[in-house]
Automatic annotation (TrEMBL):
Top-level taxon: Bacteria
GO MF term (any one): methyltransferase activity
Domain Methyltransferase as annotated: residue spans: 40-135
Keyword check for Methyltransferase: yes
Higher taxonomy: Bacteria, Pseudomonadati, Pseudomonadota, Alphaproteobacteria, Hyphomicrobiales
One Pfam family per UniProt: Methyltransf_25
Protein name: SAM-dependent methyltransferase
Species annotation: Aquamicrobium lusatiense
GO biological process entries: methylation
Cited InterPro entries: Methyltransf_25 (IPR041698), SAM-dependent_MTases_sf (IPR029063)
Keyword Protein biosynthesis: no
Annotated keywords: Methyltransferase, Transferase
Length: 250
């Protein structure tokens, strides 16, 4: 399986990126959404790390995700705070809503899970078509540096008496397709004994800044701008870890 965020992967995500943890993006998105009164959509909502703070700020936000395990964490986070949970299980390629949104948010490079160029254009077109006229897409890309870092890593998390480990080994880098594929082995340990394990193939695509702007314009977006490391108004530059695009449906 590829990019599936099953039980252990979702648990690790919840431990590593709990609701409200910010990489500078929560504050950035809240600032960029000032004045928005209509519905907002977050595709690939995950565990609600961003969605919950937006709901707490009074925004009308819905979300979807392909992983039922991730959605379970998101629903629980909303329910524990008595927040409305307009959540559904859908995919990038097939999501559909009757309403149109004033804004759409795709943080932390989630769009890069779509590794086929034509499929990615199709998803961007679907984003465009689900925005109301004048609606904005705000979307993050991980810069290429993050794709070419250490090819092997091991990380650990503690949850009470439980220990979770993630061993990552890059198994392919395709410089023509602009993709990397990494083998992820998740393990759940208790008192020195292995309880469960999962293996996932995690594939991502990197984009050039000009390339992605052209892709946005190709599917109908206008007023495309980009900034680096959540500094609105500053063009991306060498060393930025995150590049954020903002584009509007005419």
């Amino acid at each position: 399986m590829q990019n599936r965020y099953a039980t252990l992967a979702a648990w690790v995500y919840e431990l590593d990126k709990p609701v409200g943890r910010s990489f500078g993006d929560v504050e950035f998105y809240l600032e960029r959404l000032q004045g928005v009164t209509g519905p907002v959509l977050e595709p690939a909502v995950g565990n609600g790390r961003l969605l919950v703070p937006l709901l707490e700020a009074g925004l009308d936000v819905k979300g979807f995700d392909a992983s039922e395990e991730m959605l379970a964490y998101c629903r629980a986070a909303c329910e524990s705070r008595s927040l409305p949970a307009g959540l559904s299980r859908q995919t990038f390629e097939g999501f559909s809503y009757d309403e149109r949104f004033e804004a759409m948010l795709v943080p932390l490079g989630s769009i890069q899970l779509i590794t086929d160029y034509d499929a990615a254009l199709g998803v961007l077109k679907r984003f465009h078509d689900h925005l109301a006229p004048g609606g904005r897409l705000i979307l993050d890309l991980d810069a290429i540096d993050g794709f070419l870092d250490a090819p092997h890593s091991v990380r650990t998390w503690k949850a009470g008496e439980e220990l979770l480990t993630l061993t990552a080994d890059r198994i392919d880098t395709d410089y023509v397709a602009q993709t990397t594929t990494t083998s992820l082995r998740y393990e759940h340990w208790r008192v020195g004994k292995l309880v469960d394990s999962e293996i996932d193939l995690f594939a991502l695509r990197w984009w050039g800044v000009a390339e992605f702007e052209l892709a946005l314009r190709a599917v109908g977006f206008t007023e495309v701008i980009a900034c680096g490391d959540y500094q609105h108004g500053r063009k991306p530059q060498k060393g930025d870890g995150i590049i954020t695009f903002e584009a509007r449906r005419a």
